Structures are given as structure tokens and as C-alpha cells.
Amino acid sequence: MVRQFLRKVFAGRKQKEHESECVDAERTGEIPWEELAEESASLPNSGENEHGSNRALERRDEPQIYVITREKIEHHSYKQIARIVEDILGQIELGLRREGRLQLRLSPELMAEADEFLGKRIGKYIEGAERETYDATAFFDWTDEETAQIYRTFVLPSHPEKQRTFMQSRFVMIYDTCEALGWDARERATAFAEAIGWELDEADWRRFEEWLKMMSERIAMEEKQAEIGGEPERAEEEEELAEDNEFAHITPIQISREEVEQEDISKLVTFFDEVLQDKERIRQKKAGLVFSFYGFSGELEDVMQNEAVNAWASRLVEQYPYVFYFLNDEYVPMTRFVTSMVVTSSVNGDEIVFNEEELEKFIAFIREALARLAEWTGENPNLIIQEFEQKLFWT
Predict the structure, then answer these.
(1) How far apart are CA 359 and CA 336, in angstroms?
(2) Per-residue pLDDT, 297
């Protein structure tokens, strides 16, 4: 269930027709996996041919090289890597390949000109490729030092707090792919972490896997309830999930592109109608809300500057300005993300830069709303406002 949800969130591409999925042999050095499947099926089942088939399988596990060029970056072109990833996935599912082994390389031109500005563009391009293909993160050859170095240098955020959120999202993608293919997710995620110099102990992995399980259960319940109609019996379900589960307070909500374009905030209205019934319920749901959009493609900045997204978020904040009391920033910087959809902003490297005049008015508006809510729940208004500003400014 998490796999289906995250594909909607991270993957913007649509499934291609058969002919567009096959990889051009001249560009990738690969034979379309459908042709290999036919060749494999035609082999007699003799010991000699089985041995030959094993040799062929070993050849299929040879590295796939993807060269990043200036042209691909400037045109946001992900078609070739998307086709390679689809080809690898198809080979694995047919038993014609056992490893992804997708290796990254920079063209000689990029290597010669890679200054700080171009380096950021390289990083954003690789992030875009991960979103467009989704499985690429698990397929990258993390034993290849050059691939690992490119990723460490250009993709991994420099800010420690952002690294934590970044790693969380990559682990989720790796686990999703591995779960679908029957691979050892922990092993591959560990290889990824070690390749880019991120240390985790057993307790860290256990905590992440508990969180992932909780998200799966929550999303499964929401999808099941959506199929049968009506509202879920949240109190009973949350009580069951809360036992020995430190992530049980998190409420994930998915927002479709159609809902955004229609300025439909009904899912959040339902959330607030239920939560605002009493003071205790409000305090229980504090810092537990995470919502994501799906159906959009492109860079994060494209989503931030999408007029429909801006209108949807503005309506939400105008109607429920105290939404920031409920946002969870542990795994995704929701406070900054929602603010960026309301206040004019842009992305500068790893930073979100806000229009100062708009931001000042926005903060004053949110402060007033949070103060009213805190007074009603019996909390310290100054403390609630301080928590909001700390999340907004990463302090």
C-alpha cells in the first residue's frame, strides 16, 4: 500500500506503450527484455544449456551506464533513464537479471565545467530522475565508487537536518522497490547509506521500519474505507495502532491533482471537523498531520509555483490558519512546504527563499490564529508560536 501511495507522490511519469518502453540498443547497449525472454524460452532444458543460460544471466547483471549531459539537464530529459529503469525492472521480473547495477557518470563537458551552480543543477537533475523513475534509487550500483561519489557530492543535502528527511524518503523508495521484487530491503538500504557515508545502528533501522509499517497500515485503512464508503472508526483504530507504536499519532492524507484543481479541501475539513470536537482531541493530534500531493510532475519548485496548488493551499490556510499547529515536521518539512505554497517563494539550492513582505504578513496572521487556539486548549500561546517559527526557520 505504501508503494502505491508513494508512486503517486514521487513518480510523475505515465506508463508508456510497449514500443516506448523498449530501450534503443544503440543508446543503452541493451537488448529489449521481451526479446531475451523469447530467446530464453526457446532454449532446450539440458544441463549444457542451463549452464549457458546462467552465463547469459551473469552477462545481464553487468553494469548499465547512464551518462548525464548538459543537454539532458537543460531540457529536463528523463526519457532515457526511465526506459533503462523500466527495462531493468522487466528483466528482473522475468528472471533475466538479478541486480540493477545502474551506474551514474558525468559527461566530460560536465566534469570540466562543474562549478557550484552547475553542481546544484546536476543534483536537482538526479533527484528529478529518481522521482520520474522511482525504482532508480534501488537500482543504482552503490558498490560503484563513482556513482556513490556523484550522489554524495551533488544530491545529498549539506544541512544535517535536511539530510535526515532526505534519507528517510530514499529509504522508503528503496524498501518499496525491494518489497515488490522480493529483495532484502534492509541490505540494499544499508549499502546505499554506507555508500554516501550515513551511519545507522540497529535501533535506527528498527525505528524506521516501525514507522514504515505504521504508514502502510494507515494508508491501507484509508483506502479500504474509501472503497466501502463512509468515515472510518478512527478512535478504535488509532487505539489499536497506538499500542507500542511511537508513530501512531501521525495522520497521512493524500491530495489528488483533481482535488487541487477544484480547490477541494474536503479531506482536511473532515479532519478538522473530527479533531476540533474537544480540547483533548486537539492536543492528541498536535504535530501529527502529513499530507502529500500526487499527479504532479517536475521539480519541487514547479509544484510550489503551480497556480492551482497556490489557490488550494491559500484556501486551506485562510479557512484553517491553525493547520500549522497540527503539521508534523519530523520526516517531511511540512511547515516550510505549506508556507511555500501560500507565500511567494523560490528554491535556491537547498534553501526555500520567501518574499519577505508577504512572509511578514503571513506570520502575523498565523501567530494570531495559533494564539487563539492555544488559549482555548489551555496551552501557552507564546510557546506554540515559538514552535511554529522554529519549524519555519529551521532553528
Answers:
(1) 11
(2) 62
